[in-house]
Amino acid sequence: MRVNYQTNNSTQFRILSDDQCKELYSAALQVLQHTGFEVHSKEALDLLSDNGASVKGDRAYIPASVVQRALDAAPKCFFVYGRQGDRSKSLDIRPNHVHYGLGAGCVSFQDPCTGKRREYHREDAATVARVADALPHIDFVQSLGTIGNIPQNLTDVYEFAEMTVNTSKPLVTYVHSMEILRVVHKIAVAAAGGEEEFIRHPNYLVLGSPASPLFEEPFAVERLFYCARHQIPYISTSAVTCGATSPVTMAGTLVQVMAEELAELVIEQLAVPGSPFLLGGVHSVMDMSTGILAYGAPEMSMLLAAQTEIARYLGLPYYSTAGCSDSKLVDEQAALEGAISILMAGLSGANMIHDVGYIEFGSTGSLQQTVMMDEVIGMVKHILAGIQVTPESMALDVIDRVGPGGQYLTDDHTLEHFKTEFWFPTLLDRKPWQAWEAAGAKSLGKRVQEKLNRIMDTHTCAPLKESTRETIDIILAEAEAKAGRA
Amino acid sequence: MSNILVRMSEAVIEGDVDAVVGLTEQALNEGLSPKDILDNGLVSGMDHVGIEFKEGNMFIPEVLLSAKVMHASLDILGPLFAETGTRMVGKVIIGTTQGDLHDIGKNLVGMMMRGAGFEVFDLGTDVAADVFVEAVREKTPDIVGISALLTTTMAGMHDTIEALQEAGLRDQVKVMVGGAPVTSGFAQKIGADGYAPDAPTAVDMAKEFVSA
């Protein structure tokens, strides 16, 4: 027998020690208590004041004990399901369970057929959802764009409706107003099969955000309250620009974003204790030459891995960012920035890793990038699984059986294990020169486009129930009438 | 060019706030005009900073430090401009649209415009169309710069342009728009005169507008 034997059941990675997590968390608590957090909402300020925070003007000074109560109340694990309670598509939100998905809100879109950068339209939301539905390593779906050619109060609504129809995977949405959130929620409830069903099997998450540094806009508070009261899982995603909206140092940035997001947690848990909540982030450096928030920067991966570890230390799930690029094209830069961030976010153990498919620092959504990154995620998942060390995998009998000078190709052990022990590329090329030439001498970009074309030509999502579709159509008609477009 | 002006532009380039105050006073004592100090000392230093920035040799925080040096000098020169009625490079009003509390981008533009020698009036965040109109009437700027971070508040840009039109002030000013969700297509659609994707471009465009 073996004693005191340790096994790594998956690949190990740490960027902070537990002591560093504790120190950064303590510092965030001090910010909340000493500097405070500005909240532009009387309702939230009253709630904070009634529960132990000291409020002066718009600013709440939140003591550590209040934060601790919120941490105790927040669920440590929960599930988000596919529409109609589909368990096979569910996100298992608990420590070290990793899921990847798309992002939303890009103002431009890379045309999925021509590759040209253009405005994002309603039919693109349908295409994005359908392609994401087909990709094996994409676990949750967002729209990859903001519809540009219709009134603004309908954009999020159409995106959500198209996604509901065209994918059975869980959705994430960023809504621009309370009116929109109420309509989106109606659609989600219809897709779940009713209010009660939605509470049992929530099928989407809402993305929110404190404003940096250290304040909460009126709409952000309303959205937070609405999510808590309707048990919609809420993601608190500060998106700070180091050196501009947060300190230039990574440690200082971590302290500030933890303070901001913990303040949202406190407000939400005071409103409805036990509401599902994720910490999250799109933190990166300001490129000091162009002023952009750099989506391909190494600091982004470092900051998000670090905050994932702090979240895990506190027992909260985390929503991270990867698979993006600052490049204007889906080119070599997009591939390497996307790949490194996907590996880093995966290693960190973040629960939901979003924005797979962003190029041009989040200004353009690209299905070409999503398809390429899907392959990277497959590769990374294989790395994350680590090396299993067991008597069967150490293969002493096999080594003995084959012996010096033998070969393993025809051994049963090889046959039995090669399909699970090895990762099989679907896009990356390993062909000999002649075979590659005979297949058209294609670059990765070309193969990505072909795969994307194939999915668009052939994949259809399992249909929604007819009655659900009708309900959604009625909801849309109401929203259109309200927006003055019959 | 006088030696003191060369030293002033060096102070701007090197970001030496302390030095520029003494140099400004010295230059005035030597009898140089505020306009001469601005154009051939400060602005010539900032022009150099602009070139270095575009070539990637200087970075945003360093440019902002140079702008701060320039402000320190302009604090002294400003009142003299008012006395003599001399105009600076140009006059700009900036603000973030109604409903939008985000202001980092707008502030960056403001700082860089000041650094380029513009007189800048910052109306802050959550600025309604009629507030823009009132400010244009009162300050008679060359340029109005409107910023938005949210797609929901972008509509405020259009409202402001329409309000300027209705007030009969549209022809007196150039309207520039910017912010993460804004595109050149959107700027065109709402009838803005210009769209700048970043602060340095905004400054270049503003300079073109006032020299045209």
Describe this structure in words.
The complex is a heterodimer of chains A (486) and B (212). In chain A, the strands form five sheets. A seven-stranded parallel beta sheet of chain A has the order 6-17-16-14-12-10-9. In chain A, strands 2-3-1-11 form a four-stranded mixed beta sheet. In chain A, strands 8-7-19-18 form a four-stranded mixed beta sheet. Among the domains of chain A are: 78-243 and 271-384, TIM Barrel; 391-421, no CATH class. Chain A is an alpha/beta fold. The mean pLDDT of chain A is 96. Chain A is 48% helix and 12% strand. With 212 residues, chain B is α/β, with parallel strands linked by helices. Chain B has helices at residues 3-14, 17-29, 34-54, 60-84, 104-115, 129-139, 155-166, 184-189, 199-211; strands spanning 90-96, 118-122, 143-147, 174-178, 194-195.
Q: What is the correct CATH architecture of the domain at 78-243 and 271-384 in chain A?
A: Alpha-Beta Barrel
> Which structural class do the helices and strands of chain A define?
alpha/beta
Strand order of the largest sheet of chain A: 6-17-16-14-12-10-9
pLDDT averaged residue by residue of chain B: 89
Order of helices and strands of chain B: HHHHEHEHEHEHEH
Helix-residue proportion of chain A? 40-55%
Sequence of strands across the biggest β-sheet of chain B: 2-1-3-4-5
Strand-helix topology:
The complex is a heterodimer of chains A (486) and B (212).
Chain A: H1 18-35, E1 37-39, H2 42-50, E2 54-56, E3 59-61, H3 64-73, E4 78-80, E5 91-93, E6 99-100, E7 108-110, E8 117-119, H4 122-134, H5 152-166, E9 171-173, H6 178-192, H7 195-200, E10 204-208, E11 215-216, H8 218-229, E12 234-238, E13 241-242, H9 250-271, E14 277-281, E15 284-285, H10 298-314, E16 318-321, H11 332-348, E17 352-354, E18 358-359, E19 364-366, H12 367-384, H13 391-394, H14 396-402, H15 412-421, H16 433-438, H17 444-458, H18 466-482
Parallel strand pairs in A: 1-11, 6-17, 7-19, 9-10, 10-12, 12-14, 13-15, 14-16, 16-17
Antiparallel strand pairs in A: 1-3, 2-3, 4-5, 7-8, 18-19
Helix pairs in contact in A: 1-9, 1-10, 3-9, 4-5, 5-6, 5-18, 6-18, 8-9, 9-10, 10-11, 11-12, 12-17
Chain B: H1 3-14, H2 17-29, H3 34-54, H4 60-84, E1 90-96, H5 104-115, E2 118-122, H6 129-139, E3 143-147, H7 155-166, E4 174-178, H8 184-189, E5 194-195, H9 199-211
Parallel strand pairs in B: 1-2, 1-3, 3-4, 4-5
Helix pairs in contact in B: 1-2, 1-3, 1-4, 2-4, 3-4, 4-5, 5-9, 6-7
